[in-house]
Amino acid sequence: MDSTLYKTKVTDAFNEAAATYDRLGVEFFTPMGARLVELAAPQPGQRLLDVGCGLGATLLPAAARIGPQGTALGIDIAQAMIEEAAREAGRQGIGNVELRVMDGEHPDLPARSFDLVLGSYSVIFLPDARAALARYAGLLRDGGRIAFTSPVFTRDTFPFLPPMFTELIPMSLLDHLPAAWHPEQLHRQLHSWLEVPADLTAALDKAGFTDVRITDENVPMTAVSGEAWVDWSHTQGMRLLWQHLPGPEAAALRARLITALDALREDGGPVRIEVPVRYVTATVAR
Hints:
Blueprint: H1 3-17, E1 26-27, H2 29-40, E2 47-51, H3 59-66, E3 71-76, H4 79-92, E4 97-101, E5 114-120, H5 129-139, E6 140-151, H6 183-187, H7 197-207, E7 209-223, H8 226-233, H9 239-242, H10 247-262, E8 271-284
Parallel strand pairs: 2-3, 2-5, 3-4, 5-6
Antiparallel strand pairs: 1-7, 6-8, 7-8
């Protein structure tokens, strides 16, 4: 898919989803963002950038840690996300946050102006993420750090979804995602840097980073019901897939997912899924 067309689709999808993004009885981005901030360890007084900030699941806890002497800039390609994040910062009383609409792949920001660059499940949406990593290195002050999350990509699972979904999702939908996510591309080692830790380390080295640390952990995802999870899936990255399914196929997939998810519930309790997440941190090599 053409890069410009892809970005337009991503922007439209997240603008439409902003009002309900991560707010439909499902918890995932919040605990993942909190853990990323914990590993990134922002310090009081620092200046940080959050790429693809969404509603602030990473940005806001990071801003709280740097305190009033620090500044946190959140950027997102979707105007509606920026507006919702601003409202959320106001609700939480966090005043050291600035929010701007900006393309995370080509951030128009001064060189060497940040101590920390964050990106939670956002870097993976960039058509040429490896080139963007080099740009982030240029934005960091000497000794600055990057910290981001991605799915734990494997050749037999569907991107950014728990393994249990592999047999339920039509793999043809991958045609509407970045080429780097395709299992067949990973298999050919064309984009294996997303899958293989050694290749990911090499990509970061080439981008200007050192001291790369990769930590794979399960993040607990909870949903009040299977239906709540499916509704929530329309508000985040999977929305890009739903919009390409014809009505009957979408209805059939919805039914399959709800049935499979509700089968995980115990005594009417919530759906609980352990989702593998890759946390990556590195230091700029100067």
